[in-house]
Records
---
Amino acid sequence: MRLRKPFLNRFALSLLALVLVVGLGAGCASSGVNQGDVNLISIDEEWQLGQQLESDLAQKLDINHDRALNAYVSALGQRLVRQTAMADRPWTFHVVNDPQVNAFDVPGGHVYVNTGLIATAGDVAELAGVMAHEVSHGVARHGTEQLTRVYGLNLLASALLGDDPSTYQKILAQVAGGGAVAHYARDAEREADQLGVRTMYDAGYDPQGMVEIFEALLDQRQRRPSAVEQFFSSHPLTEERIQDVRAAVRQLPAKRGLISHDSDYQAVRRRVTR
Ligand code: ZN
């Protein structure tokens, strides 16, 4: 069992307490921005789970260690995170050597960006668009909400019995194989888009970049569907969703100096396209 025992014991107690609360009809809200959705995993437990997933994913994914590329992606990610309700938590941004045009959020402040996405994102605002969307899934705690829905009772049962690693291994395999902890529902996608647009704007990136990268992804689905398969399987993307993003961007007050192009970005992007 990779998860430490105290984690499980605390986990079991909190699950039990929360299930009792739910059973009494009081419900329980996540403390994220999306209050009202049931989440049986506390924020501290989520960050602990994230540490465990990060160390196991380091064995399963081809992590990119190019210093300049990682520094750039990390600085971009931290700049976004500073504008969110989860700015006080530690976040880590990882680059994965994978031609799939994909990025994904892992519970507990970990965002993975594939080199295939960097190669596709023509300017920094486009990369920031997908990264802001993924950060928003994390800030809204969509991953652990989904885990609560899918595994809630199983986790409770195995946690109370003591030492059953099977649920954790299932979650790990899902993340490592499909690139996401969850196949997000349409509402979660909309929430991540809306939050992401706002986060980009507040961080000083042109939110129109999200519209552009989503259009590029839809376009790639026509031309080389296998390259964007993972992204579409975990994030349903439709023309209607892009219209909603466009509308959200239009509602923002005009702001000077929003970044869309950046020569430093072009330099690090060449490191994955050459
Ligand atoms: Zn999504």
Note: Residues 12 and 157 are 9 Å apart (CA to CA).
---
Amino acid sequence: MALTLYNTRTRQKESFEPKDTKKIGMYVCGPTVYDRAHIGNARPVVVYDVLYRLLKHLYPKHDVTYVRNITDVDDKINAAAKQRGISIKELTEETTKFFHEDMAALNALPPDIEPRATAHIPEMIAMIERLIAGGHAYAAEGHVLFSVSSDANYGKLSGRTLDEMIAGARVEVAPYKKDPSDFVLWKPSSGDEPGWQSPWGYGRPGWHIECSAMSTKYLGESFDIHGGGRDLIFPHHENEVAQSCCANKHSDFARFWVHNGFLTVGGEKMSKSLGNFFTVRELLEKGIDGETFRFVLLSTHYRQPLDWNDKAVADAEKSLNGFYRALGMSGYEGAGDNLPENVLSALCNDMNLAPVIEQMHLLARSIYKTENLEEKRILGAQLKAISGLLGILQKDPEVWFQKGILSTEGGHYSISSPQEQINSLIEARNAAKKSKNFAEADRIRNELLAMGIVLEDTRDGTTWRRA
Ligand code: AMP
Ligand code: ZN
């Protein structure tokens, strides 16, 4: 089945064909490791993890290489290390380890290659030298700058005019720049700042050149897919294209540019600078299971904004309870089989997950309903096949239900034991019945049923048993 992806470069959905008959390359901009990842940072990780799983599924004969870098040289890192009184190396190693742990908790597969910027300085220097030799960059006062006016294609990815770019990026006007929109490829380091010897003196690379050098090294001058959050389109990705295409004459760099929408809180982009963020770790520690977390991130189309709120978390938990319940009832224990056609076609339609999730609910309902054990097993295998592509339902259903049940209220998440939760739901149902709110009473009964709890109303009150 043909995969269609929205390509930022052409601003339309396009049919994806691998460039090579044997391999597919995908590069995604990774974290700058100075602090714990927030849940906005987790969104691209989960989105491109699904794309990675999908590519491997669709192209089993291709060697799919997923590269996601670690930016371990950056002024924010220098400042954070100084503030904490630890070395830069200590800070970046600790933060990288935390990032790996947090993303593993979200069932994100590790990329095939995870290059660190500081391990690729010679490649960056070589690329900068090629840019200077080609008349696309110039050295001035220990800096090297990319000359934006030397590149006729500059601005095409983001679709901005030069004036818009200058206004949007609040570019730094500096005496050593020939043009205010020229951007830094290399800058001098002094004192305790990290640095390397280079033809332009002791210094360190700019952020954009890292991704150009590392993607070229591992995926070649032209590759299939480049991803990242939409905030990176300009200036980061625009600058990556300029550097790579000017340094490598025959390169068209990434053919597909895929960008995820923002994760928001109260409609505002979550970001460290606004201070409106929660870290992945905080939420995991408050009791949100990594799969619930992941399911929230997948519940909205990847290009749309996704607002994080209690309801979204509670809904995700409820859906997963239902899926796990069905999986447990199905008796199926393998890795999945017989992926439904409509699921694959929705995934291939620019990763449209809404019909996929709907199909999972349908399968779960059919598993509850049918009395035929073989049919239950077959449906369970389908449910598992879908969930393998989404990276959910990876636990044993028993283990899932043992963890207790999540309550959400005003940003406070708490886990109660299954027993406590069942008792409080029974109380809530009794109260609903007393006030003749039978719809709510039925809803609670069904919610419990989805958790595998059957209620029995007797003259002495309500009792429960496991189904
Ligand atoms: P950073 O460490 O800020 O460079 O971000 C790492 C990745 O997270 C990049 O791909 C960003 O585009 C992405 N990102 C940052 N904030 C958000 C957000 N609120 N929603 C979605 N993606 C984000
Ligand atoms: Zn990048």
Note: The pocket of adenosine monophosphate (ligand 1) is lined by residues 29, 31-32, 40-41, 43-44, 228-229, 231-232, 260, 262-263, 269-271 (CB under 6 Å).
